[in-house]
Design brief:
- By secondary structure, this protein is of the alpha+beta class.
- The chain folds into 2 domains: about 140 residues, Thermophilic metalloprotease-like (3-Layer(aba) Sandwich), CATH 3.40.1830.10; about 190 residues, no CATH class.
- The chain is built from 11 helices and 20 strands.
- The strands form 4 sheets. Strands 14-13-10-6-5-18-19-20 form an 8-stranded antiparallel β-sheet, with helices on one face. It has a 5-stranded parallel β-sheet with strand order 2-1-3-4-8, with helices on both faces.
- The longest helix is centred in the first third of the chain and has 23 residues.
- The chain starts with a helix and ends with a strand.
Length: about 375
């Protein structure tokens, strides 16, 4: 018997997040580990009158690419996938890894090559999302691998994920619409502000947001969702940040990250674990030395670190920075082959001010209303 929450999540993705209409061409990308959700989404797209195309990967596919591929082969990105990014109306990405540690021992340079090869596809997809010519959403299917990373049983992890995606299981769309209205008031308060300062343990960072736009994340691009974000002025970041949560990418956990910025650029970086990997990614290109995104997590149902960025960047009481490319809809001009989110907990003495007005303290918004 199919978990009824899978059907509800599929409905949320197709009917609300991507709002599939008759005649829409929709591609769905995932691995075979997410088969129950893929099938439910596939049915929902047909029921909405769309034309689904499945881009399905094997669990071992990334490992085999890195193990046996040459630099040229790793950098290569198939043209049919570029065609999907160029011409389809909607895109549903379902993350589903069975073994999240499969790439732990892959050489960092190979990951850099892959990101550089993917950049043309990624850049085009981001451009189309920004001009609203494609409706794209990403979600996560609970697997045993993810549950182990979160130090939960699979049943506990399923409950955690579905609660974060659909806090009101009877009316998930209604919940996210009401959530969007509340969050929009924060975005409006920030409109026209110029300077953001974040302080906390080992953290004192300022960025310029003049002329930039905050985006209200309300389950149209990610499910679960819950954040507001912008793209800071590229040469503005000054100060230091200590990221209290590990950063996980390509199976590697980089923890105890500290970054120092001058004139918008990372001038010093350290990590307590996997520092070499951190430095290699920062040196991917010029844009990877700069901040592409500044964001505040707002989903209080995500209250612990799980090792999956789709969830962790939404942790209520946190903020995060992304090194690398910024989203054009915010006004960001930063370009890079990477976009790497790094998260900091602000629930214990952290503050955020905007033009010297207190916005956020100890993980809570404090502005009136």
């Amino acid at each position: 018997m199919i978990d009824p929450r899978i059907e509800k999540l599929a409905g949320l993705l197709v009917e609300y997040s991507t709002a599939v209409q008759p005649g829409d061409k929709v591609y769905v990308r995932s691995t075979t580990a997410a088969t129950p959700l893929i099938e439910a989404v596939y049915r929902k797209i047909f029921q909405a009158g769309g034309h689904p195309y499945l881009w399905i990967e094997l669990p071992q596919q990334p490992f085999l690419l890195y193990k046996y591929g040459s630099e040229e082969q790793i950098r290569h990105f198939p043209e049919p996938y570029q065609k999907l990014a160029e011409t389809y109306d909607a895109y549903i990405r379902i993350f589903a890894e069975e073994n999240t540690k499969a790439l732990t021992h892959i050489e960092p340079q190979k990951v850099v090559w892959f990101n550089q090869g993917m950049s043309r596809y990624s850049k085009r997809l981001v451009q189309r999302m920004s001009d609203h010519s494609i409706r794209a959403v990403g979600t996560l299917y609970p697997t045993s691998g993810y549950a182990q990373d979160a130090e939960m049983s699979l049943v506990e992890y399923e409950d955690f994920v579905y609660c974060a995606c659909m806090p009101d299981p009877e009316d998930p769309v209604g919940f996210w619409r009401a959530f969007s209205e509340r969050q929009q008031r924060i975005v409006q308060w920030l409109d026209g502000k110029r300077r953001i300062q974040v302080t906390g343990p080992e953290t004192d960072l300022t960025v310029d947001i003049g002329g930039r736009k905050f985006i209200n994340c309300d389950a149209h691009v990610n499910v679960p969702d819950g954040e507001i974000y912008t793209g800071p002025v590229e040469d503005s970041a000054e100060g230091c940040v200590y990221f209290s949560y590990p950063a996980v990418i390509s199976g590697r956990e980089v923890s105890g990250i500290r970054l120092w910025f001058e004139k918008g650029r990372v001038v010093k970086a350290s990590a307590e674990k996997n520092e070499d990997f951190l430095l290699k990614l920062i040196n991917t290109d010029e844009g990877s030395h700069r901040i592409g995104e500044f964001a505040i997590g707002t989903n209080d149902r995500i209250n612990r670190f799980t090792g999956q960025i789709l969830l962790d960047e939404k942790i209520g009481g946190s903020f995060h920075l992304a090194l690398g490319f910024g989203y054009p809809e915010t006004g960001s001009k930063n370009e890079s082959s990477i976009h790497w989110d790094l998260i900091c907990d602000l629930r214990n003495g952290g503050k955020i001010t905007a033009d010297d007005q207190l916005l956020y303290e100890n993980g809570r918004f404090v502005i009136e209303g």
